[in-house]
Write a structure and sequence with these properties.
The chain has 164 residues and is α/β, with parallel strands linked by helices. It contains six helices and five strands. The chain is 36% helix and 20% strand. Helix 1 runs parallel beside helix 6 and helix 2 crosses helix 6.
């Protein structure tokens, strides 16, 4: 039987050799599950090692480019909700090189994530990946749906374990 790596295994492999890490949470607080990236980052605050910088970029990650470049990370992980065409709560780990071809990921933000990532990759040479979470509901309103809240809690535990 073939064993597939878990998200935790994938993150551990991707983070191997990381000296400085930036985790960017993207999302709109007024669009329910769209807020999941920011919510995950908020819940990580005070729990990650010193070499991990957490950024709550909300819907404008490009506003944090200078701050990210100044931190000079070796690894950048972006967490966002995105229309993947999967079941709500599905998480996909996408490497930067695949982002260039990832037309299937629909973001709700003004600057396409691939432009944001391309700038950082060119400027820093950092390893970049996205964790995209299929939302259940992105209608106007506050609070994550139950399924996305549960997935966010699991993701936080996975990230804490992978960063330790």
């Amino acid at each position: 039987m073939t064993q597939f790596p878990t998200l935790g295994d994938t993150l551990k492999i991707w983070l191997k050799g990381a000296e400085c890490i930036v985790i960017v949470g993207i999302g709109n607080e007024l669009r329910q599950d769209d807020f999941v990236g920011v919510q995950v980052v908020r819940k990580l605050k005070g729990k990650v090692p010193e070499h991990v910088k957490l950024i709550e970029s909300e819907t404008v990650p490009e506003s944090y480019l200078d701050e990210i470049v100044e931190f000079n990370p070796t690894h950048i992980l972006i967490i966002d909700a995105g229309a993947l065409g999967c079941e709500p709560g599905t998480i996909k780990f996408i490497h930067y090189d695949a982002i260039l071809k990832a037309d299937s990921v629909v973001s709700t933000h003004s600057l396409p994530l691939r432009v944001f990532c391309d700038y950082l990759a060119t400027t820093l040479g950092a390893r970049i990946a996205l964790l995209i979470i299929e939302p259940e509901n992105t209608a106007f309103g506050e609070g994550l749906s139950e399924i996305i809240g549960d997935v966010a809690s699991e993701l936080i535990a996975t990230l804490l374990h992978s960063l330790s």
